Amino acid sequence: MARKRIREAETAEIDITPMMDIVFIMLIFFIVTTSFVKEAGIDVNKPEAAQAQKKPSATIFIAIRANGEIWMDKRTVDVERVSANIERLRAESPTDTIIIQADKEAKHGIVMEVMDQIKAADPSLVISVAGETK
């Protein structure tokens, strides 16, 4: 009778180790393949464009306010530091396109200085200026 009780106690158990291995592998896969977008951090009142076209997606956004403030990665940046910040952001997530979101009241000279700093960081970068579509 003692032998019968021992055999009943040795019932089959479900081993969830292989399932947990698969879940962790899928989690690592999704973390590695996710791309993160570095937004400027502010909303800009962009001018409207009648002939706007869709541009390729970018991971670096630069916003220029009407008062001349330049925003990158959710903080203000001086014009002289734009190229250094672009190099840092490109090291984190490589991209060939940078989008400038300039307020419609922003001065043209500041936008041109930012574009010069982008080209100083890497002349092969594609610069897109974002506007509202009608």
Automatic annotation (TrEMBL):
Protein name, as recorded: Biopolymer transport protein exbD2
InterPro entries reported for this sequence: ExbD
Keyword annotations from UniProtKB, A to Z: Cell membrane, Membrane, Protein transport, Transmembrane, Transmembrane helix, Transport
Gene Ontology process terms (BP): protein transport
Coiled coil: none
Organism per entry: Rheinheimera nanhaiensis E407-8
Gene Ontology cellular-component terms listed: plasma membrane
Subcellular location: Cell membrane
Membrane topology: Single-pass membrane protein; Single-pass type II membrane protein
Chain ranges passing through the membrane: 20-37
Pfam family, one: ExbD
Entry similarity comment: Belongs to the ExbD/TolR family.
